[in-house]
Amino acid sequence: MIGTSAHPQSTLVERVLKSLRTGPASATLLCHGVVGLPGASAAICERVAVALLGADPRVRRLADGRWGLVPEVQGSPLLDDCAFAVVDVETTGMRAGGSDRITEIAVVVVQGGRREVVFESLVNPGRPIPPMVCGITGITDDMVQEAPTFFAVADQVLAALAGRVFVAHNARFDWSFVSAELRRARDLALDGPRLCTVRLARRLVRGVRSCGLDNLTHFFGLENGARHRAAGDALVTAELLARLLRLAREEGARTLQDITAIESRRRTGRRRPRRAMPTEPLADSSPETRL
User: Fold this and answer.
1) pTM of the model
2) Is residue 142 assigned to a domain?
3) Residue 44 belongs to what domain range?
């Protein structure tokens, strides 16, 4: 909220605002727990909330009826103002901090209706690519022999990520590899907000067997013409992100903080036990365990 504004001066209002800093709340919860009217009916609670907060520019009414702080008070950017860098890496294996390296990387920018590959390159890992990985990605030693090293493309990667929210399908994996490569190439630590489309899908999508990339691609009717290649997977993940953001907005999300809150909330229902490694690659899996 930039510029001059007016809002009510009230100790009671300030108590309500302090409570809302922990997240949106219903009128009943605010009335019973903060205002101090534990026996008030739902109708009375609604009238009290409107009287206290209805004209306050620091507060907004969410689509589900709850009250929440406007983004500027929360200190979190609006989703419409965020630029997302959707990242996909292909690698020689799973050990980002060990001997494994990136063999291909792509970064797709998502902002509003924009979907653009802003960086894409094969990367010479400086070590052989295991045959099992070659069989999945199609990336061979011959293909990367003349490709630049990560040291050579590090500045372009940094430029593609700068000022944007890092997004990936199983973000921990891609983040750990990009972070390790940047540390080796530039002695820099990757920092900033990140989102995982696996975690978001598990909390937002109903009726899907699993949240692997292939399953979600089929569920949403998307197409991926280059599966297990960096640009193909990054582009379909970008489309997946757009659909997840739409679902999150239907739940009242308006800011980046709202999205991270959805991503971090506990899942309901029982979790099925997972094996450490499948006996053979699943249809929607890769060596990166992008489940």
Assistant:
1) 0.70
2) yes
3) 11-74
